[in-house]
Design a protein that fits this description.
The chain has four helices and four strands. With about 190 residues, it is an alpha+beta fold. The chain has two domains: about 70 residues; about 100 residues, hypothetical protein PF0899 fold, CATH 3.30.2320. It is rod-shaped.
Length: about 190
């Protein structure tokens, strides 16, 4: 075994065949490490930013979808309210003036079918006398010279009626009008609006 040598504190290890570290190489290595770290930090930051932006887009799309659903619900409720209000008002108007629409149609018919030999009107049997009196006034105003026949039928609803003359006729039926209104509302707002 080799004999141990005592450590000498006065020995200079910088020389002894080893190359001294070049200051320029050290600065270059530091700069390269700095730029490499900076590039890696930018890539990491870009990845994090992309992930956050993707998450924000997903949240935004979800919020927009929820908003669209809420708007659709509000529109459907508004349509239902409008239809219910219109039906309520129509019912109240019909209860107040059950003959208004029928007499307006009769006025039009009398004006256009002035030379027809007769005009037959079918109404609910409880309204025959009232309709006869009002049609006599309308016929004089329109200059209708033909015969007016008012027929009462129990199966015709109050406010509904049929006007018939030699060349044509017209029916006033609230159920058909409700159906037409319902179809028009559905065409605009969809089937949930009814």
């Amino acid at each position: 075994m080799a004999a141990a040598k005592k450590f000498m504190f006065d020995t200079d290890f910088r020389g002894n065949g080893r190359k001294a570290v070049d200051e320029a190489a050290l600065a270059s290595a530091r700069a390269e490490g700095f730029h490499s770290g900076l590039d890696q930090g930018r890539r990491d930051a870009d990845q994090q930013l992309s992930a956050v932006l993707a998450q924000l887009v997903r949240h935004g799309e979800r919020l927009l979808s929820q908003q669209d659903e809420r708007l659709a619900q509000i529109e459907a409720q508004a349509a239902q309210l409008a239809v219910a209000t219109a039906r309520s008002l129509a019912g109240a108007a019909l209860a107040d003036k059950p003959l208004a629409q029928l007499l307006a149609a009769a006025r039009e018919c009398l004006a256009h079918a002035r030379h027809a030999p007769h005009l037959a009107i079918r109404v609910h049997e409880s309204l025959v006398e009232t309709v006869e009196g009002k049609l006599a006034v309308l016929a004089r105003e329109a200059g209708f010279a033909g015969r007016i026949v008012v027929l009462g039928e129990p199966d015709i609803a109050v406010g509904d009626g049929r006007l018939e003359w030699a060349d044509g006729g017209i029916a006033i039926e609230r159920a058909e009008l409700d159906e037409a209104v319902g179809k028009a509302v559905e065409a605009v707002f969809g089937p949930t609006a009814r």
